[in-house]
Amino acid sequence: MSQPIIALDNINVTFHQKKRTINAVKNVSVHIERGDVYGIVGYSGAGKSTLVRVINLLQEPTSGSVVVNDETFFKADTEAGAKTHISAKDLRNRRRKIGMIFQHFNLLNERTVTENVTFALQHSSLSQAQKEAKVKELLALVDLTDRAEQYPSQLSGGQKQRVAIARALANDPEILISDEATSALDPKTTNQILALLKKLNVELGLTIVLITHEMQAVKEIANKVAVMQNGEIIERGSLLEIFAQPTEQLTKEFIETATNIDKAIETISFQPLVQNLKSDEVFVRLSYVGDTTDEPLITGLFRDFNVTANILYGNIEILQDTPVGSLLVVLSGHAEQVKSAISTLADHHVEVEVLKGGSTL
Ligand SMILES: Nc1ncnc2c1ncn2[C@@H]1O[C@H](COP(=O)(O)OP(=O)(O)OP(=O)(O)O)[C@@H](O)[C@H]1O
């Protein structure tokens, strides 16, 4: 495997306040590959911002090592131990290659869109004409050419975030850190900004670290996910692994917010068919990932076992080009046959969760 573009190892960040010690990040290691859109999900206070601020040393860790693009930015084995630290001058230069965008855009309100983006080029070696061309190119990239001379107060939230993205890209960064960048936006604008980030990832090869409390955002564009709680990463994996087989309760909660399957189960549980489930019926949830979707499994249940499947709800999503499905189904037939049908489904990598009935299985 190639070298990760970002390697954080054994990172601890401890804040000392008067009488309190806050362990904001506890022994976290994360490796992010070039071209990843790496989602870090967690509730407020989980330590996400503190962790990503470590990448460009806006937050110096108490201990651990920070390596970006094969260059050690920081290394300290313990709080008291010897520290290796990149020089201040080098850090300033390297930071320009790590763009950041935030929830509240952080634009200069007295400056126009063009001036806001140009500001990011103040230390650039480009000539004035090159800077002007660069800013024009960036505004075209984020689709804001017609707003170039407007002020932030004249823009919508989504447009302001586009200015912030153009500014973050001014020095051709290889990494973009997005800290809750869509949290203040409505769902439609959120999707437009996420689509723009995805485009930048694909077209520019930009590595994106996406911190958010919204699993929906992660689901739209991330290929990898880490879930943070109390300063620790409690679960991580590819987007598909996390969505298909979450193990931690918190991960399941986040996924639920992005799929609403629990809500569907609750609603459907009140339907007469489920309320008045017969003794030979069982209400199940079938979950599957990938090719299984294409197989006529449901028809096979009747053909092979004489078990009928009444589909009450279905949700199939495409995550990273792979179908991920959930079906809420009432199966009915002889207990033995239903049992065989369920084990056949399991053989085909369909996870079967009995939600109601089935005491005779
Ligand atoms: N400079 C600081 N001094 C003291 N405590 C801090 C500091 N920065 C963060 N913390 C604390 O560290 C913990 C993690 O905060 P952090 O902002 O990283 O969480 P988060 O997951 O990003 O949440 P949010 O989305 O609310 O920012 C919190 O308890 C926070 O109060």
Describe this structure in words.
Pfam families: ABC_tran, NIL. One of its GO terms (molecular function) is ATP hydrolysis activity. It comes from Leuconostoc citreum (strain KM20). By secondary structure, this protein is α/β, with parallel strands linked by helices. It has two domains: 243 residues, Rossmann fold, CATH 3.40.50; 98 residues, ACT domain (Alpha-Beta Plaits). It has 13 helices and 15 strands. The strands form three sheets. The protein has a six-stranded mixed β-sheet with strand order 7-8-9-3-10-11, sandwiched between helices. Strands 2-1-4-5-6 form a five-stranded antiparallel β-sheet, with helices on one face. A four-stranded antiparallel β-sheet has the order 13-14-12-15, with helices on both faces. A hairpin with a 2-residue loop joins strand 13 and strand 14. The mean pLDDT is 92. The chain binds adenosine-5'-triphosphate.
CATH class of the largest domain: Alpha Beta
Spell the H/E element sequence: EEEHEEEHEHHHEHEHEEHHHHEHEEHE
What multimeric state do the chains show? single chain
Low-confidence stretches: none
**Mean pLDDT, all residues:** 92
**With helices defined by DSSP (H or I, 4 residues minimum), what is the helix count?**
13
The CATH homologous superfamily of the largest domain is called P-loop containing nucleotide triphosphate hydrolases
**Class inferred from helices and paired strands:** alpha/beta
Q: Strand order within the widest sheet?
A: 7-8-9-3-10-11
Fraction in beta strands: 25-35%
Shape: elongated
Number of folding domains? Answer: 2
Number of strands: 15
Q: In percent, how helical is the residue content?
A: 25-40%
Task: Please report the distance between the alpha carbons of the first and last residues.
Answer: 46 Å
Q: Tell me the CATH architecture of the largest domain.
A: 3-Layer(aba) Sandwich
CATH topology title of the largest domain: Rossmann fold
Keywords: Amino-acid transport, ATP-binding, Cell membrane, Membrane, Nucleotide-binding, Translocase, Transport
GO molecular function: ATP binding; ATP hydrolysis activity
InterPro entries: AAA+_ATPase, ABC_transporter-like_ATP-bd, ABC_transporter-like_CS, ACT-like_dom_sf, MetN_ABC, MetN_ABC_transporter-like, NIL_domain, P-loop_NTPase
Protein name: ABC-type metal ion transport system, ATPase component
